[in-house]
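Predicting holo structure, zinc ion bound.
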Amino acid sequence: MKNLFVLSVVFLMVACGPRKDVQINVIPKPAKVETGKGSFLLNEKTVIVAKTDDEKKVSHFLTNALKKFNGLQVTEGDAVNNAIVLTIDGNSGMAAEAYRMVVSKNGVRLTASSPAGLFYGVQSLIQLCGTGKDISIPCMTIEDKPRFAWRGMHLDEARHFQGKEFVKKFIDMLAMHKLNVLHWHLTDDQGWRIEIKRYPKLTSIGAWREDRRGEPWSIDDDQRLPYDTSKPFYGGFYTQDDIREIVAYAAERYITIVPEIEMPGHSRAALVAYPEVSCFGKEKKVPPGGYVGEHWDFSDPYCAGKEETFVFLQNVLDEVISLFPSPYIHIGGDECTKRVWKKCPLCQARIKKEKLKDEFELQSYFIRRIEKYLASKGKRMIGWQEIMEGGMDPSALIMPWRGDDALPVALEAAQKGHQVIMVPSSYLYFNGDWESMELSHIYHYDPIPEGLDSNYHAAIIGLEACIWGENTPSFRDVEYQTMPRMAALAEIGWTPKEKKDWKDFVARVEKIKALYKQMDINYYVPSPRGLPEKTVFTATATVAFDTVPEGLLIRYTTDSSEPSVKSSLYEKPFEISSTTLIKAAAFDRYGQKSKTVVALFEKQSFRKAVSVPHAEKGLRYFIYAGRFRGADLIDKAMPCQTGVTDTLGALVKNGDKDGGIRFEGYVEVPADGIYTFSLASNDGSKLYIGDYLVTDNDGYRSAFSRRGEMILSHGSIALAKGMHPLVVKYFDWGSGEYLKVFIEGPGISRRELKDIIFH
Ligand SMILES: [Zn+2]
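Done. Tokens:
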């Protein structure tokens, strides 16, 4: 009987001839795949064969995944038929991270020369199994290895602390994509997240701040309203035991954690805890906030003149080194402001003593000294591109991040003999909006672009994507920003350039989302588009969304409840005839939901015009001095100047001081109709017709996007022909005064509001 079985196995294996038309659902796409005929059907009777300790360590990931994703309880043991055989063969001649997978009708043979290679093979196999109990893997042979040695993902927890459980989940996310570095940003202005036993205040003080997630970051304490300090502080940190646990968790998944301890800048939290290592000890509070506003500035750095600073940092690094086996320590080195060094007598004395040219060379002195210290401990230093300013030892690794593709800096670094890890912000800063950095944009990035002198190819050892935490208060936000972008990152870092294929990638991303869903990852789904936040109508209005990408369904509610998979399905445009609040979200095939969009359809009757005898051209204006946090707050102040103007604008510079303006009068419209008013301002503004708030552009804001486009806030109102009372309120905090008001309506294409304003 046994012999018969073996014979049939041989027959089946022979039946697996070549075939090329099967989509292989693995991300990153393997370097080489040859498909055969037929499939291997994996079931509960499949046996996983792993003999050595290293093989067994890896096999557990497979048994656990089959249980979690497929509901299959397979056993480990010894078998020839219906078996998955895992082998580490140090003499196989394969590269360290390479693996070979042969799928026949009878089973899977996975071979590698190292545990990491075997682990990557298992990750491919897990993806091939997908979800559900019916597992059918096409017969094929995969020969796979990574294109780049450094395939990293960064995580910033200084801005918002996410905690141990999430970091482990994040590591799992990296592991399934065959990434091998977690660059952990543990310290910054807004928080210190790692316990340092010698300096307990780093975490007892530096890890906590006021909970002001609803406000923009500010470095300037006196720009804050008084705060109720009895409220619990916001933040957290990792104990050294936590760190060891996380490092071990990552190591089991063949991921190196590279800690980042920022210096000399981005160090406010440390300087608040230990003012003696700053130049003047002015740092009083860990700066609170929850998103990037217009008033953010970088903090002052450690004092480069005091010996104490270096003793402090070396002691900190000693403990960091003892916790992280990584051969690399990242010291940041970016965005170091030099203004306080210019004023500090000790920093200036250091410049003189060391015969340095300026503060840039002082930064270089600082970084070189740390670099030497790390080298004496057997560690290599990594820094952002700024560490090259003023010269740097070539043993340091450089992360170019600025500019369109960061390539000029990468070239400069390579020419100077550095190894380079590409982190261009325009492609690999995953904290950016999905609308401005779509998946295809990221996918088409290449760290070694065509035309790059081949002498420098070897210097570029890999790439990394960053998730900076300023705008991601919760781990759900981190997931949303990161996934499935991480899949694109993985494929850039692993797959041979000529094998990359965007259309094929998109299809595979749809498959891997099934695993994301089971891992409870809050991955991005595009929201329904096409509905303005508010639509004003007088008779009926049409609700019409833009076409959604294939595979997505729009569901909506009209009763203010959150849309769910059970809500009404949007199939085609429909009409409404009364005021309606639409809440809509897109759902993918796995039930993953997009962010909800809210659109108000407001039914109005034409607002009656008023009679204004002796109307004169222009609006009255009232200027207010002082610091306001909202446009309506100027109403409580006394105007310091008044007059009449025919232009609505930030005409009142009021010097560099903060202040506000109120414009008051009438607007005359030429016909009955719906008129749209638009505001662009820095900072907030509001426009009223009578007591009706037409458009609300309040709060700290910029009038232009980073790309230089005007940011407009629109609002509409149904007006009868004639004069209508108009009020515009505006405030400015800090620099950048700007206000523009536009009108659009029957017979008026959008233009600035003037000529038809009266008082
Ligand atoms: Zn100093």
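The first helix runs from residue 2 to 15.
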